[in-house]
Amino acid sequence: MTTSLQGLLAGWITGQRWFAGKGRTIDDLSIESEIEVAAGDPALLHLIVCVRQGERRTRYQIPVGLREHLPDRLDHVRIGTCRRDGREVGVYDALHDSALTGHLLEGMAGDRRFDGLGFHRTHGAEIDTSLRSLVLTAEQSNTSLVYGDKYIFKLFRQLNPGVNPELEIITALAEAGSAHVARPYGWIETELQGEPTTLAIMQEYLQNANEGWSMALTSVRDLYACPEGMPAEDAGGDFAGEAQRLGLATAQVHRELARAFPTGTIEPPEIKRMTERFRRRLEKAVAEVPSLGEHAAVAAEAFDRLADLGHEIPVQRVHGDYHLGQVMRTMTDWVVLDFEGEPGQPLAERRALDSPLRDVAGMLRSFDYAARHLLAGHPNADGLESRAREWSERNRAAFLAGYSEGGGRIRGDDAVLLRALELSKAVYEVVYESRNRPSWLPIPIAAFR
User: Fold this and answer.
1) Which tens digits make up the pLDDT trace of 128-159?
2) Pair type for strands 43-53 and 28-38
3) Fewer Cβ neighbours under 10 Å: the N or C end of the chain?
4) To which H or E segment does residue 336 belong?
5) Any idea where the Maltokinase N-terminal cap domain is (predicted)?
6) Phi, psi at residue 258, to the nearest 5°?
């Protein structure tokens, strides 16, 4: 019995890391768009499918490969077998086949168009189409390919109509000469519900760069291995200098964003409405995680102070999901990645103006996570608690010093807003860890002490 392509995808998609509807039954999967990018054997199809789960409808893009005989090296990404044009063909995830992913480079290099699928090369960029691709496996919500040692190609699996904030921001900052973004080379787009919609972005691959999260963890491990009583600044992997430079780079990116995009202000009535949203989130979190209750007064007091602000707050375009995993240290400076914001949020919210201190708060929380997450399950967790606090406080202070040095605004009542934003983020983390990683729950709880 031959299974239809829709049937194959419905059985396969639930097992993919980027599928957002895990745990819920698929009521229907339909193919909304099917575009042939390359004919022959192998062939490359670009699919946009709509998955219905109850009232929720979610679009995904799936590049599919078709081969009459699927080689062993691609068996791990096999979707199944179906009948096409009178013959049986193997169906598989095309992003794992370098014989097909070369067509994506060629499409960008040539500004090609395939029946509603538009490939675009960034102005002035030269693209080497001879490079072979390799799929990165670390991502959850997207899929990325690395071409040689030159490009990283990120394909957005879940689709929402509209231009992705990351494409807007990296293009604008690169044109302005920013030293803190990886150079863009091209993108792919289509039209959904009458709006140009970003499908993929290709940027410079920072081959010899180090991720901020990994660097921070190395520093924490070095400190934990030091003799008791040795100050953090004397530990071999002290991170404070890098934290200060990261703060400086963050302030520079915020200044560049303010020059490249419109800015505005939030008036006191909107500040009060924002504070009410924080309070409601806190109440729901306490109901779900009762252990937060004994610390809730700390957050409530911070939110009350924010509500009492009697002046406007400046807002602008921001990163929106800023943490140590979103920054890379090159030989010369820090580079910021992934300006798409929270992937699960609507594009309008991800593109909305916000306080740059939201990014600052996210990075401060990331320092706490770096300091404490190694304590989960550690036999000497209690003994290392003071070291974790020392590392976090030292690097938070260094980051804030660098941010101020770079022109970032943290003065007067800005500290009130920053504290409220940080605790609001910690409230979200408490719920997340309770649901997904209960052993990590002490990390966000510590923010309320």
Assistant:
1) 999 999 999 876 789 999 999 999 999 999 99
2) antiparallel
3) N
4) strand 334-336
5) 12-97
6) -65, -30
List residues bridging with 81 in a β-sheet.
90
pTM over 0.85, yes/no: yes
Are the C-beta atoms of residues 185 and 203 closer than 8 Å to each other?
yes
Distances (CA, A) of 283 to 288, 308, 424: 9, 20, 11
Question: If pLDDT is split at 50, 70 and 90, which confidence band does 236 have?
Answer: low
| Residues counted in the chain | 449
Q: Which residues contact 192 (CB under 8 A, 6 or more apart)?
A: 48, 59, 159, 160, 161
Cα distances from 49 to residues 46, 57, 58, 79, 141, in angstroms, run 10, 10, 8, 15, 16
- Which comes out higher in pLDDT, residue 203 or 412? 203
- Locate 126 and state its tokens: 């030269």
The answer, yes or no, to whether residue 233 has pLDDT greater than 80, is no
Task: Judge whether 160 and 61 are in contact, CB under 8 Å.
Answer: no
Strands 87-93 and 56-67 turn out to be: antiparallel
* Residue 370 to residue 213: CA distance in whole angstroms: 7
The single residue listed with the structure tokens 């400190």 is: 223
- Using alpha carbons only, how large is the chain's radius of gyration in Å? 24
Structure tokens given for 215: 């660097």
The pLDDT of residue 422 is 97
Task: Give the pLDDT score at 1.
Answer: 42
